[in-house]
């Protein structure tokens, strides 16, 4: 079926995407715009305002003023919770339009976005709506002062102005993961979507205003992360920055944030291991490992990009995944019937392809794929399996962020744990076995923030998500994410 743009989206894209500052939708102060591309076709589909330093100052000032004047925290927790719940309702009400926007600039399949990411983002706002009325402290007793009567308690207070920097691979969901807990905690926010994928963030901003979020509490700056993101991380009136992206940029965020020692949380790179033991249900493990790496063309932070298979079933598993890869159809996200869509940009596609070439030069065997797909206009890469790799190869050590799986053998549990942990990253992992003791022992030994057993990348808002080592600081989702937008105050009263 040939895609035909809906009238509402066509109208929306006919005008530049604007900045949201203090309740007003504005063009950049200097009038500059950047192009927005459809990765399925390589065509320019829209333009977006490119915020300036002056725009950034206005957005931060609006957030600061709204926080200091208690525009948001002056509402009761129940009132704030109702507004967050209403955002979830509006997301689902306008789900077709938002899924189309995700399809156009992020290369996500419409059905996957409409029936997966839209409900998940809506549930994120509903989940944190419930926490608005449950942020509370505790009482304490002094442990060292005798014969004194004291009343001691702690308070959880919103941290202040939060800068939320969102990646291109999950524009809507990742925005929800940051905005919902920040608002539930009582913060005012400046949101910086990725340059490549501003469309759903702008629409989400409109829905938040419609739901009742007051002016200045939510601000959206479009533009380059190297400039606007840097300014937000450096800004003395920003109290917290939450960033999702590459480890390299995350380190720059830390450096920029040191001026006022603002709180920082980071969800960074990953090179997640998939471990398949000899006793695993191999049919399920093969399908699960393929899904773990080829979903969204491997542009997923928890993508299972390192495969470790017991030597007795190695050839069977690698061949099984390679066969699935060879039979996958690759094409535009705007058309139905394809198993995998595009990479986000021509530059990213070239980078992924060069990594595959480097792996071949280092001795990896191409079991499937390995080539760019020409002639479709967009940015497409074959689902690729590189077999017989080792830890001396760049493809094993570096995050490729594409549909590229590297496969290795192991002999026993101690060896595979050492191999899995031999990485600068520690974001996620999955373990495939029918031995419950082996599963739990391996999970306990793997240095990663989230692990799955006999499945991969199963999300839930109640489950904390984040990484060990150079995969980041802090956690998203769950009560743990909420705490990262609060400060803890202790009060000691002599009676």
Which properties best describe this structure?
seven-stranded mixed beta sheet; globular; Aldehyde Dehydrogenase, Chain A, domain 1; alpha/beta; 495 residues; 39% helix; 24 strands; six-stranded mixed beta sheet; Aldehyde Dehydrogenase, Chain A, domain 2; 2 domains
Describe the structure.
- The protein is of the alpha/beta class and 495 residues long.
- It has two domains: 282 residues, Aldehyde Dehydrogenase, Chain A, domain 1, CATH 3.40.605.10; 188 residues, Aldehyde Dehydrogenase, Chain A, domain 2.
- Helices cover 39% and strands 21% of the residues.
- The chain contains 16 helices and 24 strands.
- The protein has a seven-stranded mixed sheet with strand order 14-17-18-13-12-20-21, with helices on both faces. The chain has a six-stranded mixed sheet with strand order 9-8-7-10-11-23, with helices on both faces. Strands 5-6-24 form a three-stranded antiparallel sheet, with no helix packed on it.
- Strand 10, helix 9 and strand 11 form a beta-alpha-beta unit.
- The longest helix has 22 residues.
* Overall geometric form: globular
Residues in β-strands, percent: 15-25%
The radius of gyration over CA amounts to 23 Å
What level of helicity do the residues show? 25-40%
Taken together, the total number of domains comes to 2
Give start-end ranges of low-pLDDT stretches. none
The first-to-last residue Cα distance is: 75 Å
Would you identify the CATH architecture of the largest domain? 3-Layer(aba) Sandwich
| Sheet with most strands: strand arrangement | 14-17-18-13-12-20-21
Number of strand segments: 24
CATH superfamily of the largest domain: Aldehyde Dehydrogenase, Chain A, domain 1
Looking at CATH, which topology of the largest domain would you report? Aldehyde Dehydrogenase, Chain A, domain 1
Average pLDDT rating: 97
- Structural class by sheet pairing and helices: alpha/beta
Number of helices: 16
Biggest β-sheet strands, sense, barrel: 7 strands, mixed
What is the CATH class name of the largest domain? Alpha Beta
């Amino acid at each position: 079926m040939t895609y035909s743009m809906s009238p509402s989206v066509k109208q929306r894209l006919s005008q530049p995407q604007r900045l949201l500052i203090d309740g007003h939708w504005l063009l950049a102060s200097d009038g500059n715009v950047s192009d927005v591309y459809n990765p399925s076709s390589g065509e320019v589909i829209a333009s977006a305002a490119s915020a300036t330093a002056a725009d950034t100052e206005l957005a931060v000032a609006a957030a600061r003023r709204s926080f200091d004047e208690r525009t948001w925290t002056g509402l009761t927790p129940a009132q704030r919770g109702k507004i967050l719940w209403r955002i979830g309702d509006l997301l689902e009400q306008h789900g077709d339009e938002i899924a189309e926007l995700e399809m156009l600039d992020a290369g996500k399949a419409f059905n996957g976005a409409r029936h997966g990411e839209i409900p998940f983002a809506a549930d994120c706002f509903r989940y944190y709506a419930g926490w608005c009325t449950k942020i509370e402290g505790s009482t304490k007793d002094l442990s060292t002062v005798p014969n004194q009567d004291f009343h001691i308690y702690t308070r959880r207070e919103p941290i202040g102005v939060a800068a939320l920097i969102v990646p291109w691979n999950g524009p809507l969901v990742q925005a929800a993961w940051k905005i919902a807990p920040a608002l539930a905690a009582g913060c005012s926010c400046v949101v910086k979507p990725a340059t490549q994928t501003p469309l759903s963030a702008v629409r989400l901003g409109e829905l938040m205003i419609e739901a009742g979020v007051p002016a200045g509490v939510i601000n959206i700056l479009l533009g380059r992360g190297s400039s606007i993101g840097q300014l937000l991380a450096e800004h003395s009136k920003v109290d917290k920055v939450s960033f999702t992206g590459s480890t390299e940029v995350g380190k720059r965020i830390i450096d920029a944030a040191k001026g006022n020692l603002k709180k920082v949380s980071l969800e960074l790179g990953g090179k997640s291991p998939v471990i398949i033991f000899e006793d695993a249900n191999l049919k399920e493990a093969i399908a699960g490992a393929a899904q773990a790496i080829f979903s969204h063309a491997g542009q997923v932070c928890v993508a299972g990009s390192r495969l470790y298979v017991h030597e007795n079933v190695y050839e069977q598993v690698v061949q099984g995944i390679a066969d699935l890869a060879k039979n996958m159809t690759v094409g535009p996200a705007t058309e139905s019937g394809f198993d995998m869509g595009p990479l986000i940009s021509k530059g990213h596609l070239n980078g992924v392809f060069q990594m595959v070439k480097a792996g071949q030069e280092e001795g990896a065997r191409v079991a499937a794929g390995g080539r760019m797909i020409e002639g479709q206009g967009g940015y497409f890469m074959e689902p690729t399996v590189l077999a017989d790799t080792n830890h001396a190869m760049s493809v094993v050590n570096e995050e490729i962020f594409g549909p590229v799986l590297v496969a290795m053998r192991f002999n026993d549990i101690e060896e595979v744990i050492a191999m899995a942990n031999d990485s600068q990253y520690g974001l996620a992992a999955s373990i495939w076995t029918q031995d419950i003791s082996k599963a739990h022992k391996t999970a306990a030994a793997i240095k990663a923030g989230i692990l799955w057993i006999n499945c991969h990348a199963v999300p839930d808002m109640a489950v904390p998500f984040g990484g060990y080592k150079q995969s980041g600081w802090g956690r998203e989702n769950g009560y743990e994410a909420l705490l990262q937008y609060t400060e803890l105050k202790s009060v000691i009263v002599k009676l």
